[in-house]
Amino acid sequence: EPFVADEYIERLAWRTPGGGSRGGEAFDPKRLLEEFVNHIQELQVMDERIQRKVEKLEQQCQKEAKEFAKKVQELQKSNQVAFQHFQELDEHISYVATKVCHLGDQLEGVNTPRQRAVEAQKLMKYFNEFLDGELKSDVFTNSEKIKEAADIIQKLHLIAQELPFDRFSEVKSKIASKYHDLECQLIQEFTSAQRRGEISRMREVAAVLLHFKGYSHCVDVYIKQCQEGAFLRNDVFEDAAILCQRVNKQVGEVFSNPETVLAKLIQNIFEVKLQTYVKDQLEEHRKSDAEQYLKNLYDLYTRTTNLSSKLMEFNLGTDKQTFLSKLIKSIFISYLENYIEVEIGYLKSRSAMILQRYYDSKNHQKRSIGTGGIQDLKERIRQRTNLPLGPSIDTHGETFLSQEVVVNLLQETKQAFERCHRLSDPSDLPKNAFRIFSMLVEFLCTEHIDYALETGLAGIPSSDSKNANLYFLDVVHQANTIFHLFDKQFNDHLMPLISSSPKLSECLQKKKDIIEQMEVKLDMGIDTLNCMIGQMKHILAAEQKKTDFKPEDENNVLIQYTNACVKVCGYVRKQVEKIRNSMDGKNVDTVLMELGVRFHRLVYEHLQQYSYSCMGGMLAICDVAEYRKCAKDFKIALVLQLFDTLHALCNLLVVAPDNLKQVCSGEQLANLDKNILHSFVQLRVDYRSARLARHFS
């Protein structure tokens, strides 16, 4: 523990008798002082003893330090001597090594020609055996030494190539025969080793055959045996992928050029197995069933390209992308050259069949419709606007538009776009996609939607028809829905194929022309509004009575508004709802505004036909209030404003004569022509009274 002087003194005083108050004992300072003096003396003696011990230890340490320094100096001298000896030894070793290398070079210079001479002597010996016609050497007769025999015969074969034929024809023939026999034996040995699964033996034999002409035949045998039992399932593409995966792991252990062997295996699979399989699948339907042919072509090409993507993982040489692309092209080139013609032919016949089947189900024989451009359509609008309508065609409520037909046509076209994307050459893709789009336009837009619009236009009844059914709005509603589906396919499936080509502007222009042509025909359907107004006129003429606004008993009027008003408002609300359901966007507001303005004009002109008593005027105001409530359903500010003004005009029918001028100068009537105000005042039964005429003048 650390030494603390205060605690030490306290303990000393506590142990001394009389040094504290322990046990009630009196404090004795003399005794405590004596104890302190004695203890100080003891501490001084202890200090002197310890000091002597420290001095002794310091002297001993200094002595040992001098001895250690002397020993270190001696070791440094010994180390310097050893280092000098090491340098001398290193120089001597370098000298000896130089001599040894020089001697080795001299020995190699002597030994190499000697080895060549020995090897040449052996070859001459073997060559003599071929000259004599009898092979006696163990290397040729012992089957276990086939590797050495192969090395010798390969060298003799090369030598024989340089000898003149006229003198050595027989020996050359024998060497060639032996060369061929050994080559066959090696290939047979390789085949047997492959069947036994002996990779090391296969590698050994392949290394020997590498210098023979039959090395490629060895590779062919390996490829052939690899495929034995590999294609047992129905999925030839999956089998091929598994086979290549297995061979890829093995080929590097057997051959010195594994990428070449694997590439040759893949080429063999493509040119034999896959090409045969593709031909069998496609030729069966090529002329008899275009739909199945196109489906099979798309499926086979997709599966082949997917297999190619898997094979890209393997080492096949420098340009494996080009290599695999050429293999795919070699299989499908005869089918892809005329693909788009088959596609267009099938799409045309299939679309025509879908439409014809639909019209047959409706027992409908398609009529020839007017053809021509936008200008021709606009001219027809002008003629229909200025001339009375001809006899209409009764469609019996049929719109001749079918969601099922549209979905089928769009589905066929979608599949055609997918096939086009996969099977078309990149340079031909935009052109081919445009041709498919043109087919869709022809059969969906022209033959189906446009025909339905034309038929719907022809089915619009004249404005004076009674109980006319306005089916054209149903046509508009369905055509609008269908065109949204058409537009979605345009954006989702066509745009990605043509977005970066000049065909984009051509497709957009074609789509724009279609939209404009349909909008023009929809505009022609504005005759539907005339029919609506005609129906309203018919209701008013049939239901409105002159006594409604000039009752015989002024004090016994119990109705809030006339029966004609109720029926007209009910009819208008139905038509407004139908228009909202049939159209979207700004077209709704445009049509409702036109209908609202015509509705106002009809009510205005209708009210001008009657004379009004005081109570009749009140009833007219109630009718107009109901018409105004109906006009709110239009949600068009102009229409509501027109009916607000009409309601204000009707107040002139009941206001007291003295207040006429005040009412006419009100906010809603102040800006109206005075003749209009006068025409309403004239409808009052009391107009001819001098008092009223005087107040209004």
CATH topology of the domain at 545-693: Methane Monooxygenase Hydroxylase, Chain G, domain 1
- How many β-strands, per DSSP? 0
Work out the oligomeric state of the chains in this entry: single chain
Order of helices and strands: HHHHHHHHHHHHHHHHHHHHHHHHH
Task: Kindly name the structural category.
Answer: mainly alpha
Q: Please state the average pLDDT score.
A: 81
CATH architecture of the domain at 545-693: Up-down Bundle
Total of DSSP H or I helical runs spanning 4+ residues: 25
Q: End-to-end distance, in Å? A: 131 Å
Helix fraction, binned, reads over 70%
Q: Write down the Rg.
A: 57 Å
Contiguous low-pLDDT stretches (5 residues minimum) are 371-375, 380-392
Shape: flat
Briefly, what is this?
This protein is an all-alpha fold and 697 residues long.
Characterize the structure shown.
The protein is mainly α. Among the domains are: 42-135, no CATH class; 139-227, no CATH class; 397-533; 545-693, Methane Monooxygenase Hydroxylase, Chain G, domain 1. The chain has helices at 5-15, 29-132, 138-141, 146-162, 165-196, 199-209, 215-226, 236-254, 258-283, 290-311, 320-336, 339-361, 374-386, 403-423, 429-458, 472-498, 503-524, 527-543, 563-582, 586-607, 614-632, 637-650, 660-664, 674-681, 690-696. Helix 18 (527-543) runs antiparallel to helix 19. The termini are far apart.
Short key terms for the protein model shown above:
697 residues; mainly alpha
What's the SSE blueprint?
Elements: H1 5-15, H2 29-132, H3 138-141, H4 146-162, H5 165-196, H6 199-209, H7 215-226, H8 236-254, H9 258-283, H10 290-311, H11 320-336, H12 339-361, H13 374-386, H14 403-423, H15 429-458, H16 472-498, H17 503-524, H18 527-543, H19 563-582, H20 586-607, H21 614-632, H22 637-650, H23 660-664, H24 674-681, H25 690-696
Helix pairs in contact: 4-5, 5-6, 5-7, 8-9, 8-10, 9-10, 9-11, 10-11, 12-14, 12-15, 13-17, 14-15, 14-16, 15-16, 15-17, 16-19, 18-19, 18-20, 19-21, 20-22, 21-22
